[in-house]
Structures are given as C-alpha cells and as structure tokens.
Amino acid sequence: MAMTTLYARQEKRHRFEWIAAVTIAAGTAAVGYLAYKRFYVKDHRNKSMVNPHIQKDNPKVVHAFDMEDLGDKAVYCRCWRSKKFPLCDGSHTKHNEETGDNVGPLIIKKKDT
C-alpha cells in the first residue's frame, strides 16, 4: 500500500512537471512569435516600401506619355512624394534632408541643336 501511494505521488509530481514545462515552452514561443511579428516583419516591410501613398488601390502605378506631348522639357518625380505625381514638385528636397537619401527628378528634354 505504501509503495502504491509513493508511486502515485511520483506520477502526479512527474505529470505536474511536464505540464509546467509545456506551459513555459508555449508561453515562450508565443512571446517570441509576437516579438518577431511586431519588430522584425513590420519594420522590414515598411523600409522596403517605396510608394507611401500614390494610387495605392492600383496593383501597379504606370504613367505613359507621347513624346510629342512633352514639349521642350518635362520633369518627373522619382521619390514618390510629389503632390503633383507623376510630375515633380520638389518634394525630394525635404525627403532627402529627412532621410539622407539623394534621389532627384527625372528630367526629359529635347536635345539642344
């Protein structure tokens, strides 16, 4: 009888240790996953995004112009911050100061003869 009681106590303690270990492991995994999602994935996605707000409902932003319609000179935005996109309004200057970037406009003009 004493042996059965001792065995039952050991089994109960062993089961409790396993439950505690699994609970700690699951909690650690959950905290690690949440930290990964919060700090790594979100920051990576935002840093690689070039277009912050222009035509976000379109899968791809494309503008086409006929050469005849351009006139003598056309200046196009490459920083994606222009309020007159696709034309440049000088927003790259502020963007460059804030980020240390060196982006500038695309200038298309007729060749001087």
Describe the structure.
The chain folds into two domains: 1-49; 67-109, 3-Layer(aba) Sandwich (Ribosomal Protein L9, domain 1). Helices cover 50% and strands 7% of the residues. The chain has helices spanning 2-48, 91-99, and strands at 73-76, 106-109. It has a two-stranded antiparallel sheet with strand order 1-2. It is rod-shaped. The mean pLDDT is 84. Keywords: 2Fe-2S, Iron, Iron-sulfur, Membrane, Metal-binding, Mitochondrion, Mitochondrion outer membrane, Transmembrane, Transmembrane helix. Its cofactor is [2Fe-2S] cluster. Residues 60-98 form the Iron-binding zinc finger CDGSH type domain.
Write a brief caption for the model.
The chain has helices spanning 2-48, 91-99; strands spanning 73-76, 106-109.
Mean pLDDT: 84
Strand order of the largest sheet: 1-2
Q: List unreliable stretches of 5+ residues.
A: none
- Total strands: the figure is 2
- The succession of helices and strands, N to C, reads HEHE
Q: Into which percentage range does the β-strand content fall?
A: 5-15%
Q: If you compute it from the alpha carbons, what radius of gyration comes out, rounded to the nearest whole angstrom?
A: 31 Å
* Sheet having the most strands: 2 strands, antiparallel
Summarize the amount of helix as a percent range. 40-55%
Output the structural class: mainly alpha
Number of domains: 2
Domain Iron-binding zinc finger CDGSH type: 60-98
InterPro entries: CISD1/2, FeS-contain_CDGSH-typ, FeS-contain_mitoNEET_N, MitoNEET_CISD
Region (Disordered): 91-113
GO biological process, one term: regulation of autophagy
